[in-house]
Amino acid sequence: MTLLTRRGLIGSIGAGAGGLLLSGCDKIVAAPKVRDVIGLGEGLTMRAQRLVTDRTALAREFTASDMSPVFRTNGNTMPESDAYQAHMTDNFANWRLVIDGMVRRPAALSLAQIKAMPTRTQITRHDCVEGWSAIGKWTGLPLKLALDAVGVLPSARYIVFHCADDFDGDPYYESIDLIDAFHPQTILAWAMNDQPLSVRHGAPLRLRVERQLGYKQAKYVMRIEAVDSLQRIGAGKGGYWEDSADYQWYAGI
Ligand SMILES: Nc1nc2c(c(=O)[nH]1)N[C@H]1C(S)=C(S)[C@@H](COP(=O)(O)O)O[C@H]1N2
Ligand SMILES: [Mo]
Asked: For residue 215, which of 23, 63, 134, 165 sits 20 to 30 Å off, Cα-Cα?
């Protein structure tokens, strides 16, 4: 009896002893029939878990030698509004990033203030839904730090990015949930490939949310709003292209 291993015990009791085996956890694991059932449960839990943990996984980062010699532009490349044109003329000295909505301390940050905050640099691949990709280097303020500074209220569920440009009068905007908003690679980029962000690529500030497709990477961000619902923004689907061309709101890659 003293030499009886767990395996030996199971073997000697046989499959008919399932009910008996349920009295001890380690024994459940070893009982073939019971394990089948438990295994199924574990598989489901693992898949559910993966759906959650994958959202926080990092997008692949590249090295300087991988950087694309040419990084195309897409969509608007020059906001036409008088307000934006004025900001461009004075090199964004009077531009302010407004952060408001469901936050404790709404803020209006100058570009200088944003640049003085901690930065993150990442070389990532941008994938446009139209079928092109480019690898670029982005430097900016982790969105998490901006959100922590204003204090997102517990009732907020999404972060909306209001942009300076429009298509035929419909402003460009995008939105992400709080998982992506607090993701370490989600940054408000003010530099690209070691240069100040150009107007074509979204000056003075654009979103990089690296786990999603190109159209989520809002350029010309003027205002960041924390909301509990996307219904009242634009046509209610969470982004310009989501509203106008049925693009997926969650464009995970
Ligand atoms: N404000 C704004 N952001 C935008 C767009 C736009 O037209 N306006 N186009 C989107 C699309 S479809 C892509 S692929 C990328 C292109 O970024 P790039 O011009 O820096 O390459 O910006 C995205 N963000
Ligand atoms: Mo795109």
From this structure: 63
Q: Which CATH superfamily hosts domain 6-11+27-245?
A: Oxidoreductase, molybdopterin-binding domain (3.90.420.10)
Q: Are the C-beta atoms of residues 203 and 92 closer than 8 Å to each other?
A: yes
For the chain, give every domain's residue range.
6-11+27-245
Question: φ and ψ at 194, to 5 degrees?
Answer: 70, 15
Full-model pTM: 0.83
Span 138-161, average pLDDT: 98
Of the residues 170, 219, 221, which should be mutated to test ligand 1's pocket, given the most ligand atoms within 8 Å of the CB?
Answer: 219
Locate the ligand 1 atom nearest the alpha carbon of residue 174 and give its number.
3
The protein residue with its alpha carbon nearest to ligand 1, atom 6, reads 75
**Which residue has a Cα nearest atom 5 of ligand 1?**
75
Identify which of 143, 150, 92, 95 has the alpha carbon closest to the alpha carbon of residue 122.
143
**By the 8 A CB rule, do 245 and 251 touch?**
no
Whole-number CA gyration radius for the chain: 25
Name, in order, each residue with C-beta under 8 angstroms of 186's C-beta and a sequence gap of 6 or more: 142, 143, 144, 176, 180, 207, 208, 209, 210
- Is 153 in contact with 102 (CB distance < 8 Å)? yes
Cβ contacts of residue 79 below 8 Å, gap of 6+? 85, 163, 164, 165, 166, 220
36-85 confidence digits (pLDDT tens): 554 555 566 666 666 666 898 999 999 999 999 999 999 999 999 999 99
Instruction: Say if residue 100's pLDDT is above 50.
Output: yes
pLDDT score for 91:
98
- The pLDDT of residue 120 is 98
Q: Any idea which ligand is nearest the CA of 71?
A: 1
